[in-house]
Each structure stands twice: as structure tokens, then as C-alpha cells.
Amino acid sequence: MSKRIITTPNAPAPIGPYNQATLINGTLYTSGQIAINPETGELLKGSIEEETKLVMENMKAVLAAADMTFENVVKTSIFISDMHNFSQINSVYGQYFNDETAPARETVEVANLPKFVNVEISMIAVENA
């Protein structure tokens, strides 16, 4: 068993005792990403679509750091602060996946998220998926 920590400057740096992702035995477990601009460290204050797009772009950078793409993703978890935003989030999220090979997923409304953002997404990806 070999555990490899995945980090990239192209996604927000961790703000606590965790890493952007961990790769073990060909499976990548990502930490949740929120809409923080990795270049400035600033939280995006835009529409729910802009927020979701930045989350997905941050996740794309983490996947790339592990030599993976969204095609390698087998499971996602989406945490949202308001289920009324589901269709807008889903519309942006769907642009990153092929409908026929899209991963398993759950979407859960929560009371609060870090920095009181509207959406946080984490993923599990597998090499050679």
C-alpha cells in the first residue's frame, strides 16, 4: 500500500490539517472544493453558476495533478446550502461529464458549509477507469 499526497498550486491550498487529495492503490480521494480563487485565495462572490464553475475548475486542477480527468471520476458528493439552487448547480456540473459515463452521485442540502459558501464538491476517481 503506497499513499501519495496530491497537491497543486492550481487549486486552493488547504486551510487545515488535510490535503487536496490522497492517491492510494490507484484510487484518488479528493477533499471538498469550494469557490476559492487559487491565485488570490479570495472567495468568489458571484452567481451560483459562477461559484459552481470555479468549484469544478478547482476539482479539475486536483484531478490533473494526479494525472486524471473527469472521466476517471466514479463518485461525487455535492453539498449545497439551498436545494432551490440544485438545477443551476446541476446544469454547470453536467458540463464536465458525459451523460453515459457520469459518476454515481449524491446531493445533500446542509445547514452551513465552510466560509458559508453555497456549494462544495468532493470526488473519488480511479486510475484506468
TrEMBL record:
Pfam families for this protein: Ribonuc_L-PSP
Gene Ontology cellular-component terms listed: cytosol
Top-level division of the source organism's lineage: Bacteria
InterPro entries, per database record: RidA, RutC-like_sf, YjgF/YER057c/UK114
Molecular function per GO: deaminase activity
PANTHER family: 2-IMINOBUTANOATE/2-IMINOPROPANOATE DEAMINASE RIDA (PTHR11803), PROTEIN HMF1-RELATED (PTHR11803:SF58)
Entry's family note: Belongs to the RutC family.
Protein name (record): Endoribonuclease, L-PSP family (Translation initiation inhibitor)
